[in-house]
Amino acid sequence: MKKVICMGESILSPLGETVTENFEAVLRGESALQLHAGTFGVKEPFVGSLMDRARWQVSGLSFFDSIVVEAARRAVEATGIDPASPRTAFVLSSIKGNIEHIGTQDVTLAASARKLVDAFGNPNPPVVVSNACISGLAALLQGRRMLLGGGLDHVVVVGAEVQSRFIVTGFQSLKALSEAPCKPFDAHRDGLNLGEAAAAVVLGFGEEGWELVDGAVRNDANHISGPSRTGEGSYKALRYVLRHIAPEELAFVNVHGTSTLYNDEMESIAIDRAGLIDVPVNALKGYFGHTMGAAGILESILSMRAVDAGIVLPTRGFTELGVSRPVKVSAEAGVTDRKAFVKLLSGFGGVNGALLFRKGGPTC
Amino acid sequence: MLTIKQFASIPAGTDLTALYRARVGDYPKFFKMDTACKLGFLLAEELADEPRFTPREDRAVLMFSTHGCLCNDRHYEETVQDFPSPSLFVYTLPNIITGEIAIRNKYAGETSAYVLERFDPAVFAGLVEQAFQDVVTASALCGWVDCRADDDYTAFAFLVERDGDGKAFNTENIYGILDQ
Amino acid sequence: MESLINEIKLKLIDALNLDGMTPEDIDNDAPLFGDEGLGLDSIDVLELIVLLERNYGIRLASPQEGKKVFQSVAVMADYVAANRTK
Fold first, then answer.
1. Model confidence over A115-172: pLDDT tens digits?
2. Sign of torsion, CA C64 A131 B34 B46?
3. Which of A158, A188, A205 is a domain's end point?
């Protein structure tokens, strides 16, 4: 089987405008999480990681559509592929897209996807993957499947989320937000923070570079908002990708690590059940917040960059283990000479996903 | 090759509560769902095969639409100014429909939600076929549930399987079934 | 107290979409959560927190606090009577 590889990437976030800027900001331990009072007209203050809208607003496009198109443009330019070719397709990942404009414009993700492909003159029908918090991961998997399905040379996968009163009040009503910067897997964690970002990956065929080896999506079949107490779906997704690799070959598992009590506990159980208890674990929500539809793509890109640099990124906000299984959370930056990692995510609807990435390696 | 095991649809204007009482009746969570989830739930009931409620990882749930959960988004938005409703907010995700079907039926395989500009049988069939690249997936409940308003929707679904006895799951046969 | 209990039951049925139920179907002392009684879940707890704030001006800090208040309709009514601001 031909290998699907990552050919070019981009990240737009409050911490930087390029992958390198974002990676270096994380290495310096920076975070864009800060207290916002009165933002979006939300009554209760909230801690979040928000982008500079004036910097990215493109005339004639909403802020969301602007960062989607710009992230895609930067990833495409990094590769030199032809985005208008009938052998190129686009996949968009988001949960709420333009929801801040509900009642005043067409806020469907289908409308945003149309603007994305029109910006590049691409003739193929755009596909939107909206699979709650695992959307970015599921979109990368979808891109891989479209390439292996035939007829395409490249798939541009873009994930983005912008915050709004709609989303912030919703998470407040679920009592899911922390009033401080989040603490993934920590004993004192008490909720998540929301974040804004856009990230894109161009997928294609090749032998060199980062291979998107395989991935799986599995449902807990348990509850629409509460994660499984046994990590059922997350474990099954991990088990699926671990058919291809031994735990000793993994540099780390980059977890969801939202910093809610139940998510992090659930992930620790899934990791233990999957036989990964000795593999380093890290989470990036302490730098960017939970960037929802962007998270799977943004966190995968930074994880690739970390392995390239021989580093296990530190988990900002983590000091004392607060989950039931002895997972090896990286509090500080670590070194690694391994060339593969697993990206893990979970979300509402009981959905869980795992992706396996590997650099180089023998041809299957 | 993928084949069609069963098909179900719910015409716009159907009294969903009456349909629930006639065909199900013992799942009070139904009344908490938004219209899109009710439609997905009822389609899954029509397509459910024996043995029921046995956990299985080999059945995927793949739901497609243009409007996602926009209909419920409008209901949630109405509550935001004063008392944002948590029970409406949890339905503001386009994939909750797949979760509700998975929970009810104990389908522990892949669940995915897609948004497309319009229903195009070739695109629909292509995406479903790609989902079968997951080697565990042996069958899929795949549907188009496009809820434009609580009383204005398109809702149908197929139960598709690998190498079954039914018609091929392709554009021609999808058109043929939808035109009946 | 009897009228407050009835009022709370009606609001509960409405807020939680307990279709087909009447106040008579809900026992004053039956547990609201868990497998017995109404079998409500975590989202219902959150919706009940909104119900208390909207109708009685009572703000609960956390779902954990809610679990104590929402033991049964009778416990809820006592709490509302003692803490209501409207």
1. 999 999 999 999 999 999 999 999 999 999 999 999 999 999 999 999 999 999 999 9
2. negative
3. A205
Residue A361: predicted pLDDT: 58
Same domain (yes/no): A65, A189: yes
Whether B123 sits inside 8 A of A125 (CB atoms) is: yes
Determine the Cα–Cα distance for residues B127 and B133; give it in Å rounded to an integer. Answer: 10
| One domain for residues A263 and A351 | yes
Tell me: the pLDDT tens digits for B93-117? 999 999 999 999 999 999 999 999 9
Say whether residue C50 is in contact with chain B using an 8 A CB cutoff: yes
Tell me the C-alpha to C-alpha distance, in Å, between residue A42 and each of A38, A164, A169, A223, B51: 6, 9, 7, 28, 48
Whether residue A364 is contained in a domain is answered as no
Q: In percent, how much of chain B has pLDDT > 90?
A: 98
Mutate to test the interface with C, among A172, A175, A263 (most CBs of C within 10 A): A175
For residue A363, the model assigns a pLDDT of 43
Distance CA B140, CA A175 (A): 35
Same domain, yes or no: A76 and A225? no
Interface test with C, best of B87, B90, B96 (most C CBs within 10 A): B87
Token pair of A32 as six digits: 């864009």
Picking from A134, A198, A135, A187, the residue whose alpha carbon sits closest to that of residue A163 is: A198
- Decide if A304 contacts A8 (C-beta within 8 A): no
CA dihedral (C24, C27, C31, C36) positive or negative: negative
Cα–Cα distance for residue pair A230/B138, rounded to 1 Å: 24
The CATH number assigned to the domain holding A92 equals: 3.40.47.10
Please give the residue range of the domain that contains residue A80: 4-205
| pLDDT category of residue B33 using cuts at 50, 70 and 90 | very high
- pLDDT (0 to 100) of residue B52: 96
How many structural domains does chain A have? 2
Domains delineated in chain B: 2-179 (3.40.47.10)
pLDDT at position A242: 98
ipTM: 0.98
Contact A197, A298 (CB under 8 A): yes
Q: Which of A155, A186, A205 is the last residue of a domain?
A: A205
Chain A residues inside the 8 Å CB shell of B92? 96, 99, 166, 170
- Report the pLDDT averaged over residues C55-82: 90
Q: Is A105 on the interface with C (CB under 8 A)?
A: no
The residue written with tokens 């390696």 in the block is: A361
Cα four-point dihedral sign A183, A186, A188, A189: positive
Question: Please, are residues A345 and A296 in contact by the beta-carbon 8 Å criterion?
Answer: yes
Give the pLDDT band (50/70/90) at residue C64: confident
Region of A29 please: left (phi>0), alpha (psi -120 to 50) or beta: left
**Confidence bin at C42 (pLDDT 50/70/90):** confident
A108, B93: Cβ pair inside 8 Å? no
The token duo for A269 is: 């159980």
Q: What pLDDT is stored for residue B145 in this prediction? A: 98
Is residue A179 domain-shared with residue A265, that is, in the same domain? no
C-beta atoms of B86 and C17 within 8 A: no
| pLDDT of res. A3 | 96
Q: Is residue A261 part of a domain?
A: yes
Is the pLDDT reported for residue C38 higher than 80? no
- Residues of chain A short of pLDDT 50, as ranges, are 363-364
d(CA A181, CA A46): 10
A195 and A214 housed in the same domain: no
